Amino acid sequence: MTTLGKIRDARRAYERITWLYLLFALSFMLALPYFLDAQEQTLNDPSLMLISSEGDATKQLALLLLYCVGAIILAVQFPPRALANLGLPLLLLLALCAASTVWSVNPEGTLRRIVALLGTVAVGALAGLRLDCAAFARLQTHVVAIVLLGSLLIAAVEPSAGLDPEGRLRGVFFHKNYMGSFAAVALLTIGVRYTAGGGIGPKLLLGGLFLICILCLVLSQSAAPLPALLAAVGAMGVAQAARKSDGRFRALLPFVIASASLLISAFALSEGGAVLGRSDDLSGRTEVWDFALSMIGQRPLLGYGYDVFWLGANAPAASFWKATMNVVANAHNGYIQVALDLGLAGLGLLLAALITVTAKVSVLLRRCDDPFLLWVVGSVVFLSVLSFGEAAIWSGNGMYTLLLAYVAVRTNLEYARCGTSALAVTQEAGASPLKTDRRRFPQ
After folding, report:
1. How many CB atoms lie within 10 A of CB 25?
2. Which residues, 6+ apart, have CB-to-CB distance to 360 below 8 Å?
3. Is the residue at 384 inside a domain?
4. pLDDT score of 254 more than 70
5. Which residue has the higher pLDDT, 279 or 400?
6. Is residue 443 part of a domain?
7. Residue 103 lies in a domain
8. What whole-number percentage of the chain has pLDDT above 90?
9. CA distances from 18 to 115, 142, 159, 166, 316 (A)
């Protein structure tokens, strides 16, 4: 066998190993609450105020092993500089998280949470370097089938685990909102795969899985992901229209986006909560936000240290729990949560990362013909909007943090390949490119 053949075989082997690892890692991370019997047992349980800040040792060990395997696969396949494809804002945000150990109100807790964050980002970066958007969407489809079908099966044979205390579907997840959010983002992936083409057999399977996602979303009775899902679908539609239309539509696009944002905001502030089954205080979120904003005012620049504000009986949040008996584990807003953890400096870096990815995807939409770029648009918008009601966007062991890392890496790789950046690591990483218009970008 020639040297070129050996290299090709080695690359195929790496791709198979990485794909199998990612399939296991994503499924395992999502189902871990069920495996550890750590699902919510009592709604708003006051005993959580006394929970230890040490965390679950079994969960920590399981995830540490998972992340170590991912880090080894990443180190074997790619040079360290490949991580530059996360982009400068996310790299600086990671550095700020690590530095926050110095001023954290709970340095040991911050250090543990940073390890979880680094592991999560590493898995997302590995996926971004190895799998293009079409391949990642196929991987996600397998994960969706495993997790959602498993959740429905568990709800049928073990209702105490698969249903929450009020009889709503949570499946393998800790809370029904996580089930609903996962089912919603799965709808985006499967919808794009269905419209991207394929034979009648795959389309029937995707159609069946699409209906299962809708069923799980309905049974979870989770309203939180619905605005994010609608915004994502709308953004994908606008992106497709802008891609196919002439310059006149693109010239009107800022006006269309601004008008839609104002209408959505007005709806949410007036009738949105009632329509979605929320109380006037958005299920207790407004009092959480008021308290969190007042605490941000006390440490506005650098925050309280990464992911420890709500951790343990002596956490800064303890006074809120005792005063309101509203026992929450986060700010129920990803942007407020980052500001609590890392101050306005951290929030600025997170917003810079989202804006940078959005700007680069906008360029790619005009220059590349791959339909899965619409999936990137939908994913970014979904994460951005969902984070207004859930603290999902920058948390260790979080599926959406992993998704953000994937989207950032993949977007930067494709942006470099299309000649609008100078990241030389694109070729060395061996990542599969998106389908581009070769007439514009000859190889």
Report:
1. 23
2. 411, 412, 415, 420
3. yes
4. no
5. 400
6. no
7. yes
8. 51
9. 21, 14, 34, 39, 41
pLDDT of residue 273: 47
Longest CA–CA span in the chain (Å) reads: 72
φ and ψ at 163, to 5 degrees?
Answer: -120, 145
The tally of domains found in the chain comes to 1
- Measured from the Cβ of residue 443, the count of other Cβ atoms closer than 10 Å reads 6
Beta bridge partners of 178: none
Alpha helices, DSSP H only, in 3-106?
Answer: 3-35, 57-77, 88-99
Per-residue pLDDT, 30: 93
Query: In 3D, which of 367, 365, 343, 347 has the Cα closest to residue 355?
Result: 347
Classify residue 73: in a domain, yes or no.
Answer: yes
d(CA 379, CA 365): 15
The number of C-alpha atoms within 13 Å of 139 and in the hemisphere containing its C-beta is: 25
> Nearest 5 degrees, angle CA 434-CA 438-CA 443?
85
SS3 call for 277 = coil
- Distance in angstroms (rounded) separating the CA atoms of residues 198 and 176: 33
Question: How many whole angstroms separate alpha carbon 284 and alpha carbon 30?
Answer: 26
40 token code pair: 């919510």
Residues 6 or more apart whose Cβ sits within 8 Å of residue 285 = 332, 333, 389
Residue 128 has pLDDT above 50, yes or no: yes
Nearest Cα to Cα of residue 173 among 191, 155, 157, 195: 155
Residue pLDDT, tens place only, 20-38: 999 999 999 999 999 888 7
| pLDDT recorded at residue 377 | 92
Residue type, 46: P
Per mean pLDDT, which range of 53-62, 142-151, 164-173, 252-261 is the poorest?
252-261
* Sole residue written with tokens 């999902």: 392
Q: Are 382 and 389 in contact (CB under 8 A)?
A: no
Is there a contact between 335 and 323 (Cβ–Cβ < 8 Å)? no
Domain enclosing residue 404, as ranges? 21-37+62-247+284-429
Which amino acid would we find at residue 131? L
Where does the pLDDT of residue 435 fall: very low under 50, low under 70, confident under 90, or very high at 90 and above?
Answer: very low
Give 295-316 pLDDT, tens digit per residue: 999 999 999 999 999 988 888 9
